[in-house]
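Record type: monomer structure entry
Structure origin: computed from sequence
Chain ID: A
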Amino acid sequence: MALGTFKGGVHPFEGKDLSKSKPITELVPTGLLVFPVSQHIGAPATPVVKPGDTVLKGQKIADASGFVSSPIFSSVSGTVKKIEKRRTTTGDMVNAIVIESDGKFEEVAYEETKNVSSLSSEQIISKIRDAGVVGMGGAGFPTHVKLSPKDPGKIEYIIANCAECEPYLTSDYRRMVEQPEKLVEGMRIVLQLFPKAKGVFGIEDNKPDCIEKLQQLTASEDRMSVAPLKTKYPQGGERQLIHAVTGRDINAKMLPADAGCIVDNVETLVAIYHAVRFGRPLTNRIFTVTGDAVSDPRNFYISIGTSYTELLEAAGGLSGEAQKMIAGGPMMGFALFDLDVPTTKTTSALLCLTEDEASKYETTACINCGRCVDACPENLIPSRLADFSEHGQTAEFEKWWGLECVECGSCSFGCPARRHLAQSIKTAKKQILAAKRKK
């Protein structure tokens, strides 16, 4: 069977061998945990606790402040020390709730549902919303909103994004290897919302053991299947994944639902299972600490709010000097200048590298080779869009479909002149969209 794929893309060094064989290990946090109230797309959550309050693990500490918002829960028991501005992995200063763990991890009582099939769609959506589940692949879109399209009857595909195409990251891989049943049960719950849909697990073919496990688990499932995908970055991009699995295309003005699809990340589907079946809010996730500068690359089951500093220490610290530290993967992650930042619902990895290869290269003039065009999964001309951006030609930028860029970085990776194409295009997009919002 032909492997699903898309036009364009690149093949960066995978780097997954550093941590892919390391089983998930639970990391018990110590000291202070920090919970930014903005861990999702939409309105920030509103704190419902104050300094001095005692909280339990699983207790709501900030409530959703609108439909496109999501509550936040404490991942430890302890005392609220303060509510103040704290820096996040993106460099922003946002309001955050700081809790000192008491080390006891006393937990609230959860309401289990033994017969999930008896729940109505409204009850399932309510449980997902009340548990604070968001897209955990990086975007952070509130999942209860994504699972509430205008016309549920038109949804034909629920696609599990199991590609994990970003180099070095192995958290989704370990979840699929060790706990694939939870992923399948999460898919089963979502399919209950869309009776006409089929569930598809899209997995790159560099994970043959995951493909085999999920094929075995879904062999008797009429509404589930596994779609092996070509290993190529950004295979896990939402648009690219939809095309690879269904052959359908969407653009920047469309939602996946407009093409009859809903896409959810591996961790998101597992969080849905925990929320609906056991009533457990989103307080933990799998997190990879990796890179050639890390002494012992690992995959941890972490309490959200744990600092990056503590995670690096748990992985044995640095084996040498790290010239580059990144929150996430090398293609779309955020470079860090300080590890005193908290993990959130959407953070999946810390990458520490002994060499900052990107800073070594000197940018030279474009030679019009077209490699950026070949690499672009959206069929754009990145070199031209970067020129428009650098000269402030926003009208031309829009005319040449600059807003369709998915910011994957494939153009910069493939450029022999080492131009900062993706960064320039991203800057122009931000400026244009900000101007549109003002109007």
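Annotation 1: The first strand starts at residue 24 and ends at 26.
Annotation 2: The chain is about 30% helix and 20% strand.
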